[in-house]
Specification:
- The protein is of the alpha/beta class.
- The chain has one domain (about 5-70, about 100-145): Ribonuclease H-like superfamily/Ribonuclease H (Nucleotidyltransferase, domain 5, 2-Layer Sandwich).
- It is built from four helices and five strands.
- The chain has helices at about 45-55, 70-85, 100-115, 130-145; strands at about 5-15, 15-25, 30-40, 65-70, 115-120.
- The chain has a five-stranded mixed β-sheet.
- Strand 2 and strand 3 (about 30-40) form a beta hairpin.
- Helix 1 (about 45-55) runs parallel beside helix 3 (about 100-115).
- The termini are far apart.
- The model has no long low-confidence stretch (mean pLDDT about 95).
Length: about 140
């Protein structure tokens, strides 16, 4: 069975500052590259936005997805922390509001709508997919700079 392979990355020049996100989506011989930017944002928001934009781009619901990110924040959040946040009404263990809750809630809905297998990849380590997503994010930041 073929899977959709997705690499995502987000970055920021200044934190907060000019941000960009990049997505490289592959399915067999088909590939699609997406990116975008925001004027005043954070690295974590761009990492989350990349994952959201990637999953929003997938129109079919019954296909396996392997999503690769170099963000431990996204990986830990979607795989571990989110269950507790939801149980506590989107509060942290310290009873403080979850940062970036708007994006986490969007990602949660998209994650539930798809069969996503999340993978962490070390950033800037020569992984072709991660390097492409990083390049796309930087291109988006360059457009705004």
């Amino acid at each position: 069975m073929q899977k959709i392979i997705i690499y995502t990355d987000g970055g920021c020049r200044g934190n907060p500052g000019i941000g960009g996100w990049g997505v490289w989506l592959r399915y067999g011989d088909y590939d699609k590259k997406l990116n975008g930017n925001e004027k005043d944002t954070t690295n974590n928001r761009m990492e989350l936005t990349a994952a959201i934009k990637a999953l929003e781009a997938i129109k079919t619901k019954d296909i396996a997805i392997d999503l690769y990110t170099d963000s431990k924040y996204v990986m830990n959040g979607i795989n571990d922390w989110i269950k507790g946040w939801k149980a506590k009404g989107w509060k942290t263990a310290n009873k403080k509001p979850v940062k970036n809750v708007d994006l986490w809630q969007r990602l949660d809905v998209l994650n539930a709508a798809h069969s996503v297998h999340w993978h962490w990849v070390k950033g800037h380590s020569g992984n072709e997919g991660n390097e492409m997503a990083d390049e796309l994010a930087n291109q988006a930041m360059d457009k705004m700079a």
